[in-house]
Amino acid sequence: MRLLAPLFLALLAGCAPLATAPAVGVATAPAPAAQAAASPPAYTPRGMVAAANPLAVGAGLRVLRDGGSAVDAAVAVQAVLGLVEPQSSGLGGGSFLMVYDARTGKVTAYDGRETAPKAAGPDLFLGPDGKPLNFVTAVLSGRSTGVPGAVAMLAQAQKEHGRIAWKSLFADAERLADGGFVVSPRMAGMINSPRVPQNVAPDVIAYFTKPDGQRYQAGDVLKNPAYAATVRRLAAEGPSALYEGPLAQAIVDRLHQGELSSAMTLADLKAYRPRSAEALCRPWKVYTVCAPNPSSSGVSVLQALMMLEHTDIAQRGPADPVAWTELAEAERVMYADRDRYVGDPAFVKVPVEGLLDPAYVAQRAKLIGQVAGPAPTFGLPKGAPAVGADKTLEPAGTTHMVIVDPAGNVVSMTTTVESVFGSGRMVGGFFLNNQLTDFNFDPRESDGAPAANAVAGGKRPRSSMTPLIVLDDKGRFLAALGSPGGSAILSYNLKAMVGVFDWNLTMQQAINLPNLVARGDTFSADVDKFGPEMTAALQARGVAVKTGQNETSGLHGVIVRPGGVLEGGADPRREGVAKGL
Predict the structure, then answer these.
(1) What's the 3-state SS for 447-493?
(2) Cα(64)–Cα(238) distance, rounded to whole angstroms?
(3) φ and ψ at 474, to 5 degrees?
(4) pLDDT band per the 50, 70, 90 thresholds, residue 404
């Protein structure tokens, strides 16, 4: 087997875990093999917050210090992220939330995915000629926005898992909105990028233009008094402040403006309900991996992990091109099945049991070789419905957080407004999502059957958001991770899981690894991180990697190491940090 170890030494950050007293309610994973140091992981014996902006992390840590639970902290983190990282998530978006309860050992999946207005039909994104609308045109229209779900979902989870008052969770967001916050380099890059179509939207221009007529730059202080007023109202009134009353009316009014206006009504907002259920969990190695239920694509990540158990990837490593080829081939099979079958289970049958059946997994794993073959087609798992081809486009304005509180309760949450700055429309100081463009625009593709992800009134669009929680062989919390990145989320999460559990890396090392996204005939990657030698070795195996065109990963993760020490990692491709109490 050909190894390229020298190429990867600089990528693999590592240091020995600290030896200290165990945290309550958590298990331990073996210590990772030592590697050359780069950016070391974060360690703590108590609680930890890993999220995409230090200000948001600080808000979460404050809540934990005040006696709040992981879910309490998640509310505070989301409220701040919606202000300081509005290109990725916010009060006008949706989310999937995984909660591990240390007392019961139960993992609950909360679905705060947006819904289409009741009056929306399969022709929502078809023009007068019956053809799909231009994607950017659709994104910037009122039709792109679904009923926001993140706030209602967080309120339900906080009611069930919170320890301190809801009204106390918005203080940091209110303070930063009123007093101002420093614009980060990444946010400034989005504000000033000619490649972000939302930057021509009137609300975006108005918000991000200084009194002197110039756009905000990194280091400038940005105030948002409208956002401060919104979070004050949310704190005082609870989630109803968003779904009823003046703010709800403002949302409806804004979406009805302009051509291609929305059919959303006040009744749509008032009727929104998050979903919650036992998480979708499956055994993997000696662990149990838990993911959200559809319309999340968690089933697909579980399928890929199970398929890789039929390969020798765990006996290889990140410096071996065969290992990356096997990872790429598993991804291609994963996406072929995901794109065909996953949708909102309230509207279409999703063959979850069939996709995860060990016999079916073993059959699909036979397509994974050490040389890339032709692009795989979808399989036929037991219970598969007759659904058509899917051409959903899925841009990414998304973020992920992991929170562990001192009692051992855990949150793994992926949250989004879909594209950068969502639809570009703003209400109450926050952007509205364009989540409905996650539906397949053409409800009936060339093979005749309706697509599983076609538009319907009240339906949730398929999502790639897949926050993960891993339990040990005794059912105790072991690890949590997740990422933004549109459809590439599945690949990013899979890479990190392989890095930690197959290649024995620290969480930070696994996050630092190059990204490789293989779907159909396309292989996109962090070519610069692979380097010319590995790129050539992959090319020789049919994996012709090219620089990716989509949003980069923003992985955050936490794992329990010997002695109960929490080890965290944050993606260097973004601005996040992992910090402990």
Answers:
(1) CCCEECCECCCCCCCCECCCCEEEECCCCCEEEEEECCCHHHHHHHH
(2) 20
(3) -110, 10
(4) very high
Coil/strand/helix, residue 518: strand
- CB under 8 Å, gap of 24 or more: what pairs does 444-451 form? 444/122, 444/388, 445/388, 445/389, 445/390, 445/391, 446/388, 446/389, 447/388, 447/389, 448/388, 449/386, 449/387, 449/388, 450/122, 450/387, 450/388, 451/343, 451/387, 451/388, 451/389, 451/390, 451/392
Q: How many CB atoms lie within 10 A of CB 560?
A: 27
Q: Please tell me what DSSP assigns to residue 62.
A: H
**Integer Cα distance of 61 and 73 in angstroms:** 7
Q: Residue 198 gets which letter from DSSP? A: G
pLDDT-derived band of residue 36, with 50, 70 and 90 as boundaries? very low
Distance CA 177, CA 185 (A): 18
In the three-class reduction of DSSP (H, G, I as helix; E, B as strand; rest coil), residue 434 is classed as: coil
Q: Is the pLDDT of residue 35 over 80?
A: no
**pTM for the complete prediction?**
0.94
| Residue 445 · residue 390 · CB < 8 Å | yes
The span from the CA of 305 to the CA of 23, in Å, is 28
Long-range contacts of 233-236 (CB under 8 A, 24+ apart): 234/79, 234/91, 234/151, 234/170, 235/166, 235/167, 235/168, 235/169, 235/170, 235/174, 236/167
Tokens linked to 255: 């979406």
Q: Which residues does residue 263 pair with via DSSP β-bridges, in sequence order?
A: none
Per-residue pLDDT, 13: 43
pLDDT tens for residues 349-369? 999 999 999 999 999 999 999
| Active-site position among 28, 311, 398, 535 | 398
Three-state secondary-structure class, residue 257: coil
| Mean pLDDT (whole number) for 143-148 | 98
What are the structural domains of the chain?
5-180+223-277+400-580 (3.60.20.40)
Tell me if residue 230 is catalytic. Answer: no
Single-letter residue type at 22: P
Identify the residue with better confidence: 286 or 550.
286
At 371, the amino acid letter reads: V
What tens digit of pLDDT does each residue of 473-531 get? 999 999 999 999 999 999 999 999 999 999 999 999 999 999 999 999 999 999 999 99
CA distances (Å), origin 576, targets 175, 186, 223, 504? 21, 11, 21, 23
